[in-house]
Amino acid sequence: MFDEKVKEAMAPCGLCCTTCFAHKDGDIRKYSLKLKEKLGNFHINAKRFETMLDNPVFKKYTVFQEVLDYFSSENCSGCRKEQCRIFKNCGVRSCHQDKKIDFCFQCDQFPCSNTNFDDGLYKGWVQINRKIREIGIEKFHETAIKRPRYG
Ligand code: SF4
Ligand code: SF4
To answer: Which of 35, 38, 120, 146 gives a 20 to 30 Å CA spacing to 29?
Structure first.
């Protein structure tokens, strides 16, 4: 049996949901919210800093703010609880439920053609699940949460 916390953090496909920008308890959302809080009404000052520091980077502050707002607002509970918001066509979620297994690496059909992933994601999925088979899900999770998700 797997550690329940680890299982909840990891999607059945082997991707780590808590490192995803959309996850409600993920670091990306957490630090975006924190940064928003710390910046407060920085937008009011952005124009001033543009002149004071003679730096046109502050012109782009509103664009940065939009991205930060977006990262702060995403709030997915993870693949174990709801349909993935990014890979909308993902075939793994319902498939692993039908097969009554927790992860693809446990499946005797792995690597299959049921994922609906594009080539890049499919390749990653195969690699990830081979690695999980080799080192185990707990160890894989330990490494995954320390790495940048979009490295
Ligand atoms: S289910 Fe999809 S959108 Fe939600 S946290 Fe996991 S990878 Fe991100
Ligand atoms: S058939 Fe494929 S998608 Fe479904 S659980 Fe097995 S490996 Fe995963």
So the answer is: 120
User: Hey, which residues does 10 pair with through a beta bridge?
Assistant: 16
- Residue having the nearest C-alpha atom to atom 4 of ligand 2: 95
Tell me: do 93 and 37 sit in the same domain. Answer: no
Whether 149 maps to a domain, the answer reads yes
- Express each pLDDT in 22-50 by its tens digit: 999 999 999 999 999 999 999 999 999 99
66 & 88 share domain: no
3-state secondary structure of 75: coil
Distance 146 CA to ligand 2 centre (A): 26
The whole domain housing 108 covers 1-15+83-151
Q: End-to-end alpha-carbon separation of the chain, Å?
A: 30
Mutate to test the pocket of ligand 1, among 19, 20, 88 (most ligand atoms within 8 A of CB): 20
